[in-house]
Amino acid sequence: MQVTSSAPVPLELRRKGGSIVTSRLDVWLATPAGWRLEGSSVLQNVTAPVERQSMKLAKGQYTAVFTCRVEESINGVYEFNFDVGPTPVYADKGNVNTTSDPHDSKVYRDQFVLVVS
Amino acid sequence: MRLQFTLLAASAVLAVGARAQSNDPVKLTESVRGNPQLAAFTVDTAPGTVSAFGLLGPTGELAVVENPRDLTVALKAIDGSNAFGLSITPARTSITPMSVSTYYDHMWARVLAGTTLGYAQTTASVEGAEYRQRAVSIETSFFLEPQKDDPLTLYWNALKSASGKDNPCVFADAQKPLDPPAAPTAPAASAGSAASDGGPVKPALAPPELKEELDKRAADCRKLALSKARWNASRAWASWAKGQYRPDAGGATHSMGHVLVLGFTYGIGDFDAKQAGALTVAAKRTSDEPTLATLSAAEPTRKSVTLSTLRGSYGTERIRGLLEVSNLKDGEPTASQRVFKQALGLDVRLTDGMWINFRAGKQRRIDNQGDEWGSTMSLSYSPAALLKF
User: Fold this and answer.
1) Which of residues 85-104 of A touch B (CB under 8 A)?
2) pLDDT for B249-261, tens place per residue?
3) Contact B120, B53 (CB under 8 A)
4) B103 near A CB under 8 A
5) Nearest to B187 among A49, A89, A111 (CB)
6) pTM of this structure
7) How far is B199 from chain A (nearest CA, A)?
8) Model pLDDT for residues B61-119, shown as the tens digit of each residue
9) What are the residues facing A62 on neighbouring strands?
10) How far apart are CA B198 and CA B183, in angstroms?
């Protein structure tokens, strides 16, 4: 998946439900010496239905790693949407409460190509 | 886990005795003068939370229903004579779920989130006669100062304000791409189902080792957050229950009366205070409760009683003293009235969640022939059980 955005790159995480949703986006640049971290955004204002941040990145092509964790809280119901600029990138919904553990959880980790123009 | 379905073994409905609960203290010693028939002597917690189970006094296995399908299965198991109990906290189920932001932003939502509806039915043998009984209840409790006391709020706030490298409440460390740097522009395909119209995709699940790491991190954060919760939380509660019974052999249905409980605790001092206290006021109104002796009568004798209690607690995380007085008046005691008139107590924490509780006080004799003094020492596995009514 490739996502194109202008700089600074706006990020938006929308949450619904009685579970807590925390996430982060790490943006990496490939260099001859290996991966170099160019920026990170941690989105864990867990009581906000909508959380927005922006990342200052130079023009170029990056690999962005999205990590997200859903944890049962008031109940296990959850829904999240993650957008980069105007592009909806990731979304999921469901019920994370699948065991008697009061803190059932689900962790996602995915990546995409981010082109900053 | 929020919606509970209880298979109940039949037990005596109006018998004098404490409810069987997992957190009930284990009595170690007991010393009394006067009437030795003191099955409920350890009850010095004054008016208790009233539920349908509490009114019927059932015991039994506790099963868990977590979604509507499980609830349907559970309800199919009911027939008129089953020992059965159901407790549902709607906001905490997937049936009518409440959102985190709603709970966090509104007091009414926290009251609603703590509201539990209960139903119970059972059969009981009282003085040789069998009775079928059923009861309904509604109860709620909530924190008056959630920013200081509510475990959910404390945890969420810890996440919201987290910073620093070694803080377990910071969600995760930076995650590197899976691809080798030589091919950074060809990331692994998402394990989710990418939408063909360019819409969002379901992100791939993390490998188990990452999930395990983040789960541990979250557990450490919860522990850190809850360490700042006050033992003397300010909270309020209310409950109401109503029941009825009829002879198993047939006959008219009679009311078991109804019970209303109101109370609040006001905590003095913050969590990091060396010493802190709590003042608790509670009242329990029992209306039209039939006496045991007339249970089988066509028109049972009924009593209505109001019990008010004032309790002061003071101490530290490890040791607390308490003084309690009630307005218990002379008269034939019932199961719900079996409390100390005046009591002194001491709670000493042995380890996390394990307490030694000592109580000494004066209560009315069960044969109503004056008062008696006594003391108990018990082992408790839940500090909360000592702080709530």
Assistant:
1) 87-92, 95, 97-98, 100-103
2) 778 888 888 889 8
3) yes
4) yes
5) A111
6) 0.78
7) 6
8) 444 445 666 566 556 655 556 677 777 888 988 888 999 999 999 999 999 998 988 88
9) A114
10) 24
